[in-house]
Amino acid sequence: MALLVNIFALFFVFVIVNGDCGVVTKEQWDGLTPIRVEYLPRPVELVIIQHTVTSTCSTDARCAEIVRNIQTNHMDNLNYWDIGSSFVIGGNGKVYEGTGWLHVGAHTYGYNSKSIGITFIGNYNNDKPTQKSLDALKQLLRCGVERGHLTANYHIVGHRQLISTESPGRKLYNEIRRWDHFLNDVASIKN
């Protein structure tokens, strides 16, 4: 019985510390509460990858600071309800909760209510994504399928395929183009 209690306690601590899919929760990165939320129909079939065009980060403190600054800019200057991205990935290999799996984000005009937007911290026209950050994305996507947030046959696209932008940057775009779920021809999903 004591072993069972210890296993439950470890599981409980793991879930609390790591959140859903190992994501750093808003509470953990000191995020603001959204002004309003709109629920995202799930499972989602489309994942949009983008970048922040900021400096990169490699420490927990610096990555969390950048995520806070992005949220502040989105809410105070752009009048968004919350940070625009569903998730933000740092060079430290951690995934930060944005609007998350359940809520509509504000990352790609015309696609927000039918997609998950995942943003990498950095400028990937200049920088190469870290292996830790790429592994974090792959793990997040696997977990998203396992938890029913994403369809098993979801599609990954670069932000640049849907709107006029360089995002997610040439080097990150080149990386995701080689992945199994990458959708090269977006004609069927384009607004």
From TrEMBL:
It comes from Chrysodeixis includens. Residues 21-163 form the Peptidoglycan recognition protein family domain. The keyword Nucleus does not apply. It holds the Pfam family Amidase_2. Residues 32-169 form the N-acetylmuramoyl-L-alanine amidase domain. This is Peptidoglycan-recognition protein. It comes from the Eukaryota. Gene3D superfamilies: Peptidoglycan recognition protein-like. The keyword Signal applies.
